[in-house]
Amino acid sequence: MPEMPEVEGLAGFLRERAVGRTVAAVEIGAISALKTFSPAPTDLVGREVSAVARHGKWLDVVTSGDGEALHLVFHLAKAGWLRWYDTVPRTVLRPGRSPIALRVRLDDGAGFDLTEAGTRKRLAVHVVPRAEAVEAIATLGVEPADLTPERLRELLTARNQQVKGLLRDQSVIAGIGNAYSDEILHAARISPFALTRSFDDGTTTRLHEAIHEVLASAVEQASGKPAAELKDSKRRSMRVHGRAGQACPVCGDTVREVSFADSSLQYCPTCQTDGKVLADRRMSKLLR
């Protein structure tokens, strides 16, 4: 799933190429991706792209016309992506079995598709007068760049929960998902199942520093890259996420995995759990 650094990279990519252009056409490939119907996607036609913003993991293409803004807001979910064309194929997109959910054509012939692989369709597209009309955006937590040590301490103590879950909760901190929460906890040397109210000042400081350092590095790495390269760049930068069975780049121990029904996490026992291996069963009693 694209997380904050990749979505910020996509936002920057679109700013360079789409801002100032006029929407020439919008074609629908998957009706299921549309979460709003009025305004319609075709209401974007003839409007100028005036800005591209990011809200957590959401992308927001802002268009202007008739004195009012209209936002094309989308969440790429687990298997979605944005495919850019310098010249969009001439073939008109038709609803069907194509992985293309939405196609936007611009007045210079360029444009982009929103695609989604797999059978579990979760890509979400909204056309709204303001981004906050989407409830998932209105309820987002603090952006990582705005997260102070004091605010993090408040979030950690508000409810006693596993820190991995807190980092992934979009209503608490916006933009961090499964991959970067693994990377942050590895950098901070914290078990993914450590309970948040058990954190002392030193642990909280390590976590705060890791959040900023890991994400700042990832944003810098994503900046300026073409949309087609962002996913591979993300994979190459991971130290533990997606690297179960490989050597930890810090200590050399074997990176381990805990699997769940529809996801998994990776960690280093030596760096994060005092050498103890976490049970790979969802209902097991896990290390705190």
TrEMBL record:
SUPFAM superfamilies reported in the protein's UniProt record: Glucocorticoid receptor-like (DNA-binding domain), N-terminal domain of MutM-like DNA repair proteins, S13-like H2TH domain
Domain (Formamidopyrimidine-DNA glycosylase catalytic): residue spans on this chain: 2-123
The keyword Mitochondrion is annotated on this UniProt entry: no
Keywords: DNA damage, DNA repair, DNA-binding, Glycosidase, Hydrolase, Lyase, Metal-binding, Multifunctional enzyme, Zinc, Zinc-finger
Bilayer-spanning residue ranges: none
Cofactor(s) needed for function: Zn(2+)
Pfam families: Fapy_DNA_glyco, H2TH, zf-FPG_IleRS
Keyword Metal-binding carried by entry: yes
GO BP, one annotated term: base-excision repair
Catalytic activity: Hydrolysis of DNA containing ring-opened 7-methylguanine residues, releasing 2,6-diamino-4-hydroxy-5-(N-methyl)formamidopyrimidine
Location of the FPG-type domain: 239-273
Single GO MF descriptor: lyase activity
Family recorded in the similarity comment: Belongs to the FPG family.
Identification of the protein by name: Formamidopyrimidine-DNA glycosylase
Lineage: Bacteria, Bacillati, Actinomycetota, Actinomycetes, Micrococcales
